[in-house]
Specification:
- The chain is of the alpha/beta class.
- It has 2 domains: 115 residues, Immunoglobulin-like, CATH 2.60.40.3500; 228 residues, Aminopeptidase, CATH 3.40.630.
- It is built from 9 helices and 19 strands.
- A 7-stranded mixed beta sheet has the order 11-13-12-14-19-15-18, with helices on both faces. A 5-stranded mixed beta sheet has the order 5-1-2-9-8, with no helix packed on it.
- A hairpin with a 3-residue loop joins β1 and β2.
- α3 packs across α9.
- The protein is elongated.
- About 12% of the residues have low confidence.
- It comes from Sphingomonas montanisoli.
């Protein structure tokens, strides 16, 4: 039977009311920091075209978390948590109660993870000894993948690892209508860059993922380290509440963000390791210690030089933001011995940028800019410049 469709959202001072065209059995909620948000997952439900704001809610983003689950993300005007949620008797209306809290309590609520509302059909019969328990599907454990290396022959050729951001349970940002997801756009652009570099015959190339799979941020950089990569490029699409924001940009690692937008991006991207409220990242003190090592500083310097080169070479065919090279504390860039950049190829939240991101011509332009920068970078390294 086809799932329910969300037909409307009403926002009051301290409540959010969600309406469906058919009964919905359960819902769950969790909160996220950086920026402060409340996410609501609705199994066996699809999104309709709804928008609303007011009360404690600054804006709503929505899309399909997976083919059968709709996800609504409420960006908050101030810290708030879900104090309860109740379905109507026909389960076609869900009323979510909100309460403003301190920053400290909000942070503690983030750590608590997911709250479940409603009673799943036959739940008591299936698990009478665990009232209120839920099963959260996770990708099965697997060894760290070692991707295929393509391109120039010979192990003495430089190796570039291209990382398509997000994937699997983590869709990343989405278009304004929720129909396009960052994970798919990033993968298509990453493959275009791989193909362009492979065709050049001057470097070896590998992708951290070539399909729709979830990788923890630390795994992405460790793939590059395991392969002894000479360069790591993580490909993403930007997003912003301001739908007019456009242009590509490049980030390199710094513990001090270059501006407020860079700090917000780092907070958003670094939360990609939190799946269903569970932190899968496992960052530890060893990483913190590595960051102050001289090797890390040298790597950061090389990354910064490459980022400026990449911005210059891409600008010939790609619209770049003003001052496109930015700095942020991005976990995925923290390999201590692999120069790394994060490439935001455009704003998926902007309709004009989205058309470009989905076009083969634009992907080709991005790939050509990357190829030129890569060739110049390694030519300089070989000649000691």
């Amino acid at each position: 039977m086809a799932g329910a469709i969300i037909t409307g959202v009403d926002i009051a001072t301290d409540q959010v009311i969600v309406r469906f065209d058919k009964p919905v059995a359960t819902a769950s909620a969790f909160v996220l920091n950086g920026p402060q948000r409340i996410a609501i997952d609705l199994p066996n439900t699809r999104m309709g075209r709804v928008q609303a704001s007011g009360g404690l809610i600054a804006s709503i983003r929505h899309g399909q978390y997976d083919p059968t689950t709709a996800r609504m993300v409420f960006e908050l005007k101030e810290p708030a948590v879900v104090t309860g949620a109740e379905f109507s008797s026909d389960h076609q209306t869900l009323t979510i109660s909100l309460k403003t809290v301190s920053e400290n309590i909000f942070t503690k609520t983030v750590r608590k993870g997911r709250q479940l509302f409603g009673i799943a059909p036959n739940a008591q019969a299936k698990a009478p000894s665990q009232p209120g328990g839920i099963t959260v599907p996770l990708d099965p454990p697997r060894p760290l993948p070692v991707p295929t290396v393509t391109g120039a022959r010979g192990s003495n050729r430089p190796l570039v690892v291209i990382d398509a951001g997000h994937g699997g349970h983590d869709p990343g940002s989405s278009s304004s209508d929720g129909s396009k997801q960052e994970k798919d756009v990033a993968l298509a652009i990453a493959k275009a860059i791989r193909d362009e570099l492979t065709a050049s015959g001057r470097v070896r190339v590998a992708l951290t993922r070539s399909d729709d799979r979830f990788l923890v941020l630390g795994e992405r950089r460790e793939i590059a380290r395991r392969l002894k990569a000479d360069l790591f490029i993580s490909v993403h699409c930007d997003s912003a509440p301001n739908n007019a924001a456009r242009g590509a940009s490049i980030y390199t690692l710094s513990e001090v963000a270059s501006d407020r937008v860079a700090a917000q991006l780092a907070a958003k991207e670094n939360r990609a390791d939190v799946l269903n409220g569970v932190d899968l990242g496992g960052e530890n003190n060893e990483v913190s210690s590595i960051l102050i090592d001289l090797a890390q500083r040298e790597t950061m310097n090389i990354s910064s030089v490459f980022a400026n080169l990449l911005a210059r070479e891409m600008s010939e065919g790609v619209k770049m933001k003003d001052n496109p090279h930015k700095f942020a504390g991005l976990i995925v860039l923290k390999a201590p011995d692999v120069p790394s950049v994060l490439l935001e190829t455009g704003y998926i939240s902007n309709d004009e940028d989205l058309k470009l991101l989905l076009s083969s011509g634009y992907r080709k332009a991005v790939a050509e800019g990357v190829r030129k920068a890569v060739e110049i970078h390694f030519a300089r390294r070989l000649t000691g410049q």
